[in-house]
Amino acid sequence: MSDDFKSFRCQSGFSSPPCYAAEVAPDYFDPLAVDPEQARDVARWRKAERARLRAARLALSVAERKEIGEALTGHLRQVLQDRFGGAQGKVFSAYWPIKGEPDLRPLMAELHKAGITVALPLVETRAAPLTFRRWTPETRMVRGDWNIPVPPSDATVVTPDIALAPLVGWTAEGYRLGYGGGYFDRTLAVLKPKPFVVGIGFQEARLQTIYPQPHDIPLDLIVTENGVQAIRDVV
């Protein structure tokens, strides 16, 4: 085992005494130099971080979540205005909040009222890219994978111009720690043209690194209740 790999194991918290990822420089991990043992360690570290971050956000009170959701709505409204002129003529993909995620459904209804096409992602086929179906406030939702409410099968399938990606964790370089299914990365790899992707997360969920793997695709923008936190590209 190389000294670099031993150092990685210590910094990832997989040795004794444990070290912590927050102490590791974000560019320490070379995504092109992956070996199976290292990848397994990264996967274990990510699993532990997901559990920690999800527990922290579920511990928030209803009032705190509402305040964060309202702050995020305001920042997103400004992002759409500044970058897309309000997003008129665009297809905007949001998400249905689960597991303590910020609730942006009021913004979805607001955008629909303004004449913007709003969509929601769903798993139509396991281990395949996501499908996006049009949503309106009148849409009669059905239960999809993991019991997440989704538009029914007769809803119009669309391709988003702008897509929100819920975050469990995030980095200043625009990398996303999700739920581990790989659906967003898989989708972004095949969508043509690629949508402008905005990660939505909590400020306290910032990580120094997620130890990027070759399949990890950085997002274009990350927004928290404190505002825009990471910008990868300029529209």
TrEMBL record:
<comment type="similarity">
    <text>Belongs to the 5-formyltetrahydrofolate cyclo-ligase family.</text>
</comment>
<dbReference type="GO" id="GO:0035999">
    <property type="term" value="P:tetrahydrofolate interconversion"/>
</dbReference>
<dbReference type="GO" id="GO:0005524">
    <property type="term" value="F:ATP binding"/>
</dbReference>
<dbReference type="InterPro" id="IPR002698">
    <property type="entry name" value="FTHF_cligase"/>
</dbReference>
<dbReference type="InterPro" id="IPR037171">
    <property type="entry name" value="NagB/RpiA_transferase-like"/>
</dbReference>
<keyword id="KW-0436">Ligase</keyword>
<keyword id="KW-0547">Nucleotide-binding</keyword>
<dbReference type="GO" id="GO:0009396">
    <property type="term" value="P:folic acid-containing compound biosynthetic process"/>
</dbReference>
<dbReference type="InterPro" id="IPR024185">
    <property type="entry name" value="FTHF_cligase-like_sf"/>
</dbReference>
<keyword id="KW-0479">Metal-binding</keyword>
<protein>
    <recommendedName>
        <fullName>5-formyltetrahydrofolate cyclo-ligase</fullName>
        <ecNumber>6.3.3.2</ecNumber>
    </recommendedName>
</protein>
<dbReference type="GO" id="GO:0046872">
    <property type="term" value="F:metal ion binding"/>
</dbReference>
<dbReference type="GO" id="GO:0030272">
    <property type="term" value="F:5-formyltetrahydrofolate cyclo-ligase activity"/>
</dbReference>
<keyword id="KW-0460">Magnesium</keyword>
<keyword id="KW-0067">ATP-binding</keyword>
<dbReference type="Pfam" id="PF01812">
    <property type="entry name" value="5-FTHF_cyc-lig"/>
</dbReference>
